Amino acid sequence: MAFLNSLDVLIGLIVIYLTLALACTVINEWIDATLHVRAGQLRNSIAQMLSTTDSDSLWNDFYGHPLIKGLVRNTSFFGIIKRKDKPTYISSVTFRRVLMDVLKKLVTKEQIDTTTPFSQIESTLKSLPESAIKQRLITIIEDLKLNTDNAAKRLEAFQTALDQWFNESMERTSDWYKRRVQLWTFFSGIIFCTVLNVDTLKISQYLWQNPEARAAYVQAATDIVRSTEADSAVLASLKKQLSSGDTLQISKAKQQLDSLTTQLRIQITQGTTIPIGWETEEIPSDNALWGYWLRKLAGLIISIGAVSAGAPFWFDMLKNVMNIRSALKVKTIGKES
Question: What pTM, to 2 d.p., does this model score?
Answer without folding.
Answer: 0.72
